[in-house]
Prior knowledge:
Elements: H1 3-16, E1 20-21, H2 46-49, E2 59-67, E3 69-70, E4 73-74, E5 88-97, H3 102-116, E6 124-129, H4 141-148, E7 156-159, H5 161-164, E8 165-167, E9 172-183, H6 187-192, E10 206-219, E11 225-238, H7 239-246, H8 259-269, H9 277-298, H10 307-326, H11 338-345, H12 351-354, H13 356-388, E12 393-394, H14 396-406, H15 410-419, E13 423-424, H16 426-444, E14 447-448, E15 452-453, E16 461-462, E17 469-482, E18 485-492, E19 494-495, E20 509-513, E21 516-526, E22 529-534, E23 544-549, H17 551-575, E24 581-586, E25 591-596, H18 603-618, E26 623-630, H19 631-637, E27 650-656, E28 659-662, E29 677-686, E30 689-696, H20 697-718, H21 724-758, E31 762-764, E32 767-774, H22 778-791, E33 795-801, E34 808-813, H23 815-821, H24 825-832, E35 839-842, E36 846-850, H25 857-866
Parallel strand pairs: 1-2, 6-7, 12-13, 16-19, 32-33
Antiparallel strand pairs: 2-5, 3-4, 5-11, 6-9, 8-9, 9-10, 10-11, 14-17, 15-17, 17-18, 17-23, 18-22, 20-21, 20-23, 21-22, 24-25, 25-30, 26-27, 27-28, 29-30, 31-32, 33-34, 34-36, 35-36
Adenosine-5'-triphosphate binds next to β5, β10, β11 and α7.
Amino acid sequence: xxxxxxxxxxxxxxxxxxxxxxxxxxxxxxxxxxxxxxxxxxxxxxxxxxxxxxxxxxxxxxxxxxxxxxxxxxxxxxxxxxxxxxxxxxxxxxxxxxxxxxxxxxxxxxxxxxxxxxxxxxxxxxxxxxxxxxxxxxxxxxxxxxxxxxxxxxxxxxxxxxxxxxxxxxxxxxxxxxxxxxxxxxxxxxxxxxxxxxxxxxxxxxxxxxxxxxxxxxxxxxxxxxxxxxxxxxxxxxxxxxxxxxxxxxxxxxxxxxxxxxxxxxxxxxxxxxxxxxxxxxxxxxxxxxxxxxxxxxxxxxxxxxxxxxxxxxxxxxxxxxxxxxxxxxxxxxxxxxxxxxxxxxxxxxxxxxxxxxxxxxxxxxxxxxxxxxxxxxxxxxxxxxxxxxxxxxxxxxxxxxxxxxxxxxxxxxxxxxxxxxxxxxxxxxxxxxxxxxxxxxxxxxxxxxxxxxxxxxxxxxxxxxxxxxxxxxxxxxxxxxxxxxxxxxxxxxxxxxxxxxxxxxxxxxxxxxxxxxxxxxxxxxxxxxxxxxxxxxxxxxxxxxxxxxxxxxxxxxxxxxxxxxxxxxxxxxxxxxxxxxxxxxxxxxxxxxxxxxxxxxxxxxxxxxxxxxxxxxxxxxxxxxxxxxxxxxxxxxxxxxxxxxxxxxxxxxxxxxxxxxxxxxxxxxxxxxxxxxxxxxxxxxxxxxxxxxxxxxxxxxxxxxxxxxxxxxxxxxxxxxxxxxxxxxxxxxxxxxxxxxxxxxxxxxxxxxxxxxxxxxxxxxxxxxxxxxxxxxxxxxxxxxxxxxxxxxxxxxxxxxxxxxxxxxxxxxxxxxxxxxxxxxxxxxxxxxxxxxxxxxxxxxxxxxxxxxxxxxxxxxxxxxxxx
Length: 869
Ligand code: ATP
Ligand code: MG
């Protein structure tokens, strides 16, 4: 069965069981402070398990793009070394939200695997949760009894909390689970060793493929469990592992999911897969990481220096360095694998087709720049090794610095060191790594208490589009601690505060009761809740408050947001429709917009975009807002859906004239409110991605005022009334003329001085020797020394410049002396410059050294004579 058909069959099967089939959520998560990437099928449904939202259907199935490279689920270290853990993988899953429970979940999993996919029943083992004393849970008898209806009892194993109790995080919904394992060893091996003993023992051919989680608890902050009012089913099956089983292979990499890219890599590198374990690992790492990086970029996560972007950059660099080390690939190559991936998976994941230009451009650029880094790192390391001399051990902090600042992998340092008979201080390196882990743990550490629920009616609505203040009540609150300190998070029954999202910052403001005023320092969204951050908890949390947002900040932000839309449209008009949004920040201070475009914008293009936006402002276009559009209507109107964005059933459409966008942000009632739009800068953030920063309204007007003031200051300084350019030009001309004159004077003076030098030349051992101090500058003195050497025979000229701050010494020796007497100006100057506390060097016939202590000049000149005695 082809992998495409395996996926299709799964979705079809659950469709026939009454499930709604949905798309995979983006691989990169936004608006979830607890998770960077989707790491399981259930992540996109978290809010439903938490009771903060209602799903479209209480039965859903899909295949979810997952990435397990950070946080609680991190498989990175196993990837490539084993044959069944990936960074990016697809998780096939079916869900019940308060609908069916264990009976159906178990029966259907069994039916699908044994009847539809035809996996032999005597290769399957299942596990059941045995209970945990600490948690006060007992054996999952219900699951055990249900399994007994399908599978021989001796194929049911009991598992502990580690394997059979699934939790998405430290707190939140959780429950016991049943895993399904398949033994794919050859029949002889199975006859010899009972597969039972190999379940959950990291055996590459007795592996877990499906986990059925029975969500029935909520883990609280104090570690205790509470029963959930509604019980849910959450299952996840590894697509690549399933393909391995159904295609009769013993490694995920031997399936049609990976073979095409492996073959391409064989072609590019000239190395065959399956010959040598070391190169095999490298090949597996590369074809695995390609998928992780490609899917993340296609979903809008570009490699960067922070957060999720940094994780993606590190994964890509890991692949590059495996290629560099084991496959001798020292030119960009990963981007060349992408077309194969696209051909294989683009049908089901159209983002791979649509984003091809960006994905390959970004990967190629990252590859090229990291390969340069590797070269620099090699040079640096070689320098260090040269200086180490006797010790033969590269210190751990240096290996760490190379790794941390330059991204130079430690294993590469190790190899380079070993090649030259050195080792690296492994313990020291590990210690530095541990320190860094601790630092980043501290930086992201978040301690969250349980919610204290005051009103569980579930009415927690946003009225931010239409209100800047409202009477509110607190429905729940909790304490959180992060690196910035201790906060309380409040949720209101209704709120005028806009929660940070879609690039737009969250509102600030206050809530006021008759006896206190509490400042709201930020507003964010988490699992569909709007959370207000405050530093102190109100005394009377049950009271009624007047909530007021900071209107001037909000208005400034709103101006920037609407201007962003106008600019987006203008960019597409000026540069072309390949321009697509790749990221944005909309604050009260400025706006930043990242978009796809392959070359630097010209000054004319920037001016034209600015002009077009200002024209739309002048046209005073009214806002046309549709809060409850269907996606079809919105697209028909001309709105563009972005990849990597998760849209609900209903979308909000924002229109100003011909600018139409899907947007959840706040907007001006009329474009005239924006008043003025000014681009501050245009730059590049990654291959094929440009960034514009701009300002609007008062900020833009004030910026122009400031510019005007500086201009006026310049006019005053130039003592001119109007034409600054002309005045500056004439200053420049005058300056150039003066410079020429000065150069001429110096040349004359130097020539004259050179004549006086001649008088001081002494004949010593057949050499015309001169050591002299001068007030000329270094370059002129040097030229004089050279000229004099040419005029005299057998000359040896030493000139010291008498400069209190930067004295220098130049030595010029006739070439025949260099040959006959073995003199070396470079070596001599090094020696004599010690008196002026300096250093330098050069060729045998000409060398210069700069120093710091002019008082030593006489001693230097005196010592020079010793070299010809
Ligand atoms: P394992 O113990 O093999 O790491 P897990 O217990 O971490 O698996 P779950 O979190 O239960 O796995 O995920 C459900 C299913 O997803 C697993 O049964 C497996 O088939 C698949 N899976 C999990 N992690 C990976 C991975 N890194 N690469 C590929 N498939 C995976
Ligand atoms: Mg795992």
